[in-house]
Write a structure and sequence with these properties.
10 helices, Uracil-DNA Glycosylase, subunit E, alpha/beta, single chain
Length: 248
């Protein structure tokens, strides 16, 4: 049996279990054969993704899949999907919430007012998307009217984000905002409980240290959050300095 076929069978069993556990049987009156066709196509897409990950993934592959993705309703009104941008093997990977209007227009992360502030924040501790950082979001398409991403939307995008993290292998992750913290740490704790100290993030065989801070957009709305956000940045800078590789 081919590897891709094994993945298809595994995905089919996962899908069947999800439906049974979520009350699929109670909704049988709404069933039609087009639903099965959609499920099979999605399962095949996920199987191919897993196969590609084992055979040599790339940022280009992931970006192409993101731009073609229709796994949640957010794709319906997007102008551009926003995979992320930055350097390979970054010192820090910044993960925010989701694209806004400017990001949707340009297909790039953090390019509006919040993005300009983020660039200044990173620059203050020696980081830049051009030289040692990578910037992404938990969801890759803009939620309508910039609302918060819903759980099913972050879950639909999670496989892309995890693949990016595993491929980039950042030394540290900076989770910008509550939505990012919830998605990465699998918690519902308020951000004032999760920020201010490092925690361990693991995915497969990859492990790194993760720090939560406030989203730049929140800082634009509230002056009171700027001081604690600056303390978070100083903590990250201290960690970078402590673990910096000696110069030759």
């Amino acid at each position: 049996m081919e590897l891709a076929e094994k993945y298809r069978i595994a995905e089919f069993l996962d899908t069947a279990n999800d439906f049974l556990c979520s009350g699929y049987r109670t909704r049988r009156v709404e069933y039609n054969f087009e639903d099965d066709a959609s499920l099979i196509n999605n399962a095949e897409s996920r199987a191919v993704s897993r196969s590609e990950r084992h055979s040599g993934d790339s940022l280009e592959n992931i970006a192409a899949e993101i731009k073609a993705c229709k796994n949640c309703p957010l794709h319906e009104k997007r102008m551009n999907a926003v995979p992320g941008e930055g350097v390979i093997a970054p010192v820090v990977m910044v993960i925010g919430e989701g694209p806004g209007e400017d990001e949707d227009k340009q297909g790039r992360p953090f390019v509006g007012k919040a993005g300009q502030l983020l660039d200044k924040m990173l620059d203050s501790i020696g980081l830049s998307r051009d030289k040692n950082a990578f910037i992404a979001n938990t969801v890759k398409c803009r939620p309508p009217l910039n609302r918060e991403p819903r759980t099913e939307e972050t879950e639909a995008c999670s496989r892309f984000l995890i693949r990016q993290i595993e491929l980039l292998k950042p030394k540290y992750i900076l989770a910008a905002g509550r939505i990012s913290a919830h998605a990465l740490l699998k918690t519902s704790d308020p951000i004032n409980k999760t920020r201010g100290s490092f925690t361990t993030f693991s995915s497969g065989e990859f492990t790194c240290q993760l720090l939560v801070t406030y989203h730049p957009a929140a800082l634009l709305r509230s002056e009171d959050l700027k001081r604690p956000a600056w303390e978070d940045l100083k903590l990250l800078r201290s960690k970078l300095d402590t673990n910096a590789e000696p110069e030759n």
